[in-house]
Amino acid sequence: MAMVPSERRLSRLGLASTGVGAVLFVSVFSLDGPAWFWATEQHIYIVRHGDKYSSYPPCDETTDDICFDAKVMGNNPPLTPCGRQQARYTSDWLQQHARIDNVLVSPFTRTLQTALPLAEALNQQLKVEPLLSEARQDSGAFRAFNADAPGETVRDLSECGARWDWRYGAASIKTPENDTLYVQRVVEAARTLKARFPPSTGNIAIFTHATPSLSIAFGWCYKEDSSLKQFLDTQDAIGPAGVVHVIVKQGGSGSGTCTILQTQNVADALKCGRTPAY
Predict the structure, then answer these.
(1) Are the C-beta atoms of 121 and 223 separated by less than 8 Å?
(2) Gap between the Cα atoms of 123 and 213, Å rounded
(3) From CA 219, how far away is CA 130, in angstroms rounded?
(4) What pLDDT, on a 0 to 100 scale, did the predictor assign at position 192?
């Protein structure tokens, strides 16, 4: 029987301890074999967005150069200058570690901006996937383009628009989203992305948010009777532009393994920003 996570651990997955199921369930491969046995090996890099403006004091309460303008940014704050640096840093790190064949991204401004340096470096399009959206939002990312946002944000979003893969069809999520809808959505996200991007399609970079990043990693590998609490107890919190690395090995007979490596907060090396790990 699956163990019930603590309230603090549940909050990392965007859940409340009010009867919401504690386990996300999708299939897991389980047969080991020697290196030559594997017909296909796929690497999935799940990346959190970089430092965001909403981590800073409101503009009417501070004289700092960086502040959060809720009127302009709403529920969709862009990246700060630090966040944009973190996005470039993690893009370079990803390119050093794997060939990325597909770039998937949440439709929120901060995730689009975080994915942009990698898409530009690889000359790839952005597959915008609402299933990767932030948890429990009252509405979708309706402020994705705002002419009053900081100048670099407008430029970034213009570039994202040019790289938007319009052939990639994806339905909107249900909002407002409560705990129950969130659990259903991330289960659907793992199932859908595994079906659309099997190992034969190559490696994937998925740009999302702190809460969905851990949920989707868990759902990618673990089966119904697995313990969510046990997974979270061994997984470090993910920082801005941090990475959760999932490895899928598929054998010629259809068997295989799925492994989640420890969180790698690679952009911490820049030592900037106020957005905390979560």
Answers:
(1) no
(2) 24
(3) 17
(4) 95
Cα–Cα distance measured from residue 45 to residue 98, given in angstroms and rounded to the nearest whole number? 9
- Smallest CA-to-CA distance from 55 within 30, 79, 32, 24 is with 79
Give the integer Cα–Cα distance in Å for 184 and 227.
Answer: 17
Angle between helices 109-122 and 151-163 in degrees, nearest 10? 60
CA 241 to chain centre: 9
CA distance 188 to 118: 26
Give 46-56 pLDDT, tens digit per residue: 999 999 999 99
Phi, psi angle pair for 152, to nearest 5°: -65, -25
Looking at residue 186, its amino acid is V
For the chain, which domains are there?
Answer: 20-270 (3.40.50.1240)
For residue 223, give the amino acid letter: K
Global pTM? 0.85
Angle at 11 between CA 5 and CA 16, to 5 degrees: 75
DSSP 8-class letter at 204: E
Distance CA 224, CA 184 (A): 14
Output the pLDDT for position 233. Answer: 85
| Residues 89/94/95/99 CA torsion (nearest 10 deg) | -160
23 close to 228: Cβ distance less than 8 angstroms: yes
Q: Give the pLDDT confidence score for residue 39 in this predicted structure.
A: 57
What is the SS3 assignment for 186? helix
